[in-house]
Amino acid sequence: MVGLVESAHAFGGDFVVAARAATARGRAVGKARSDEGARFETVEGRVDRTGGDIAPQGCLHLVEDRPTIGVSAEMDDGEEDSLFEGTQNFGHVYIVGIDRKMSNCFDAVLDKDSQRTASGAWSARNQAPVYARDRRSGRRPNRFHQNCKGYPVKRSRNLSCLALALLGFASMAHARDFRVKDFGAKGDGKRLDTRAIQAALDAAAGAGGGTVVVTPGTYLSGSIFVKSGTVLKVKKGATIVGSRKLEDYPIMPTRISGIEMSWPAALVNIYGQHDASIVGAGTIDGDGQVWWLGYWALRHQDEPKGLRWASDYDDKRPRLIQIFNSTNVTLSGLLLTRSGFWTVHICYSDHVHVDGVTIRNNVGGRGPSTDGIDIDSSKQVLVEHADISDNDDALCLKAGRDSDGLRVARPDEDIVVRDSTVRDGAAAITFGSETSGGFRNIEVYNIHAFGHVPLGVLFKSTRTRGGWADNIRIHDLQLENVPIPVQITMNWNPHFNAVQIPPGLTDVPSYYNILATPVPPGRGLAHFRNVYIANIKATGAKIGFDVSATPQNPLEDFHFDNLTIDAQSAGKVANAKNWTLSGVTIHAADGSQLTFTDSSGITLKDDSGVAPKEQP
Which residue segments constitute the domains of the chain, with CATH numbers given? Predict the structure, then answer.
């Protein structure tokens, strides 16, 4: 492997390189370190080695041909807020790779407070391409280099010895800090600071990039918009609190609950931007109770009129964070609390990284539809190290609703959700109910769910949604006292999905007609196939499986491997085709076995608690 350096300032310090690979069939962990600890000095673009081996070796044996590889390096004597200037040390560098068919070339972005890039090429055979970002600031490159010489990904079931090296970096001009208090923000929690915060964000964008710093204090705000090339950094002790007035959230085109419509902007937005980040150890607080009470009041009015289905669209509640139609975005480290509606909505976006956010929405009540992280018709998204407590879907993939979702036809694809905790929410992982655009190449693993979480793996759709799912991999889940570890339904919440405009109601919003547009029967059923679920341990369950589709559209080519479920009852599966269960053990307190009805092609291997034949 060869590293290329274009220009650099001097820096020093020991480094450590760690590599991790995760697969659907197992997990391999390897670490690489130079024998003596390598120390580099860069002079006029040349890298000199002063100790150790500059290309430490780490061996990983992968048992699956779709590796996800992460690499990290840290200077042991770099300070958190140090700047890479002259001979100062740099901080952390974070490199994440998701299996892609492209050359192994990347830009490296260093330092917490400024954007510094270096060109480099990884030129080792059999290695997945990577991109680099600073772990704390979240900055990452604009694009992969197109002209450097790297080998394309070679898929192999045995990636023997992986060489990992960090050989050189180049600095750019120091990006400025823009402190919101310098632009008139008070931070007293009483006066509205929206204009001052936005002025700082606009100034950073106008200067070609920078970090907007929110220092300790409580900042009352309406919608703010993070621009391309900028970082919004909410420091520890700082809280941005959402205004309770709807007029402080401008109405903008977006997608809500599966249809394109105008809706209030979120409290914090990255809207139509690139290379933007929202980071820090502070708090973003939606002060959601006023929005929750407003929703319930409207719903109580709508339901007697036959408008239950309209309530979620009639009541305009701001989301906490919106990432819409944007690329190269990072959200990391923050406490997100009391969202009025969805907490993090990632829609029509790509190359998004959500890392280390804590979501606590059930403070002062349990608000309706306070989803945790919704990934909506987006691609190349990585969500990791989330800790979620909310009152609806926790980690959720969405892709449009009914006729409008089928019109847009944008799938969720190339998504990784991993290493996260769900303490309170609808399920450990949810697909749907907005399934119209489809799901492709999704991997979910290392999720721990416990507390108030009724479901483990949840697939939900309706008979008017349509859509599809293909190549879904879910593995290594730990479910404690989750009543139903596996639930799949194609007829979810019919009262909400039965859209019919009451007779005599003529002066209606345009979105009523969108929602009421009929879907042809042939397009209304979702097609789910090639789903792999493995390595799940569930204790304290009530029912092991609760699965049903339709005879016209069975759930096809599902594979379950190494599941251990302790439950009161084993459960049932209907409308399955070509399923394989291997090493599935269900300990049912009532002595029941998992049964299959209206199903065909069921293969059982080394299972316990599963009926050997289809039941009538």
Answer: 17-163 (no CATH), 182-392 (2.160.20.10), 399-616 (2.160.20.10)
